[in-house]
Amino acid sequence: MGRGAGSTALGLFQILLVFLCIFPSVTSPCKILKCNSEFWAATSGSHHVGTEEAPEFCTALRAYAHCTRRTARTCRGDLAYHSAVHGIEDLMVQHNCSKDGPTSQPRLRTFPPGDSQERSDSPEICHYEKSFHRHSAAPNYTHCGLFGDPHLRTFTDTFQTCKVQGAWPLIDNNYLNVQVTNTPVLPGSTATATSKLTIIFKSFQECVDQKVYQAEMDELPAAFADGSKNGGDKHGANSLKITEKVSGQHIEIQAKYIGTTIVVRQVGRYLTFAVRMPEEVVNAVEDRDSQGLYLCLRGCPLNQQIDFQTIRSAQATEGRARRKGPSLQAPPEAFTYETATAKCREKLPVEDLYFQSCVFDLLTTGDVNFMLAAYYAFEDVKMLHSNKDKLHLYERTRDLAPGNMAPSGLSSALWVALLCLCQCWLCLL
């Protein structure tokens, strides 16, 4: 079919999307409105689709198709859903789009009327914050950290002390994967700490090539595995950069194309991890319901969590490290509860969970470097957390419902509705 016919079909399809935005089925659990809005945001600036724009358009179509498949179960009887499915099929045939290939990311990019900055190599594409139009809602950032023996602060600000020996996924979404390996601190002990870290940044549009970063005990590189320090040969390669803050001890990775900052430290023999990431990126997974374990999002499994408060009470009375179960080998340096608390107060004057983790780790391991790990973990929270009222945590959370995030369904629904109304209003001008 010719370009004119394809443009006409796209125009009619966009008119249908406007209609569906104005008259959505407000009582239906079907989430097709979100899919429609994302596709509209990706294509509404084009009046026709030329040959040079076809790859980007096909990418947007594939993303739209993925979105409809994810909501298929709850949309079986929804007219808007079936209209979208048929419209996608027709447009993919008209523009010779393959069903296999890259999909556009879920970030919404809206431009002012008349703005033609739509090229995939536009700097805005490779800068997450710049991709938000001034009328869009500002991104909401979240934080996750892992340090010590090991202690986990999730994206929902729950705090857990875990065993998690061996390799575990810390983050796993459409943009990157982070895996940690935890090994025993002492022979025969259930106390573990992070000895290896692997971060995979997935190839993203015209911004970055796939990059792998690996760190191990006594090896904290200031470059990716291939020796590079940025995102490769693409136009926006510098939107992914590694900076060495302290040689062999502290590196920072800036991934501006996804609005993410990662801090990796080596403290003593072990590694710490901290990340600041937009909530939208955190939730960017193909199928969240069937997604596997993801520590920063879901927390540690219940059978891997340690009853922090009970053990801390036992430590206070016994004066040395002791977990439930078989007796453990005594730590190399004997801390009493009093000397451990005094040592931790040197760096952590507020008796929050970071302070308590410090005491716990000194009694468990006898290694003073774990005090520094807790201190630097809190320093990273101060730098990375967007809510300064939540820097200190005082009550740990043991029973975390799998897959739960902070309640955001209402705000997300309102945002999509407002976006649709705004887009429809712009069309009528």
Task: Report a brief summary of the structure.
This protein is α+β, with helices and mostly antiparallel strands.
What would you note in describing this structure?
Helices cover 33% and strands 17% of the residues. The chain is α+β, with helices and mostly antiparallel strands and 429 residues long. A hairpin with a 2-residue loop joins strand 10 and strand 11. The longest helix is centred in the first third of the chain and has 20 residues, at 3-22. Residues 21-27, 45-52, 105-122, 319-331 and 397-429 have low confidence and may be disordered. Residues 99-122 are annotated as: Disordered. InterPro entries: RGM, RGM_C, RGM_N. It comes from Amazona collaria (yellow-billed parrot).
| Overall tally of domains | 2
Beta strand % = 15-25%
User: CATH superfamily membership of the largest domain, which one?
Assistant: Mog1/PsbP, alpha/beta/alpha sandwich
Oligomer type: single chain
Q: Which architecture of the largest domain would the CATH scheme give at its second level?
A: 3-Layer(aba) Sandwich
Q: How are helices and strands ordered from N to C? A: HHHHEEEEEEEEEEEHHHHHHH
CATH class of the largest domain: Alpha Beta
Tell me, what's the shape? elongated
Q: What's the N-to-C terminus distance?
A: 31 Å
Helix content: 25-40%
In order across it, which strands form the biggest sheet?
3-2-1-11-10-9-8
**CATH T-level fold name of the largest domain:** Protein Transport Mog1p, Chain A
Structural class: alpha+beta
Rg (CA only) = 25 Å
For the sheet with most strands, the description reads: 7 strands, antiparallel
Residue-averaged pLDDT: 76
Number of strands: 11
- Give the uncertain stretches in residue-range form: 21-27, 45-52, 105-122, 319-331, 397-429
Number of helices: 11
Protein name: Repulsive guidance molecule BMP co-receptor a
InterPro entries: RGM, RGM_C, RGM_N
Family: Belongs to the repulsive guidance molecule (RGM) family.
Membrane topology: Lipid-anchor; GPI-anchor
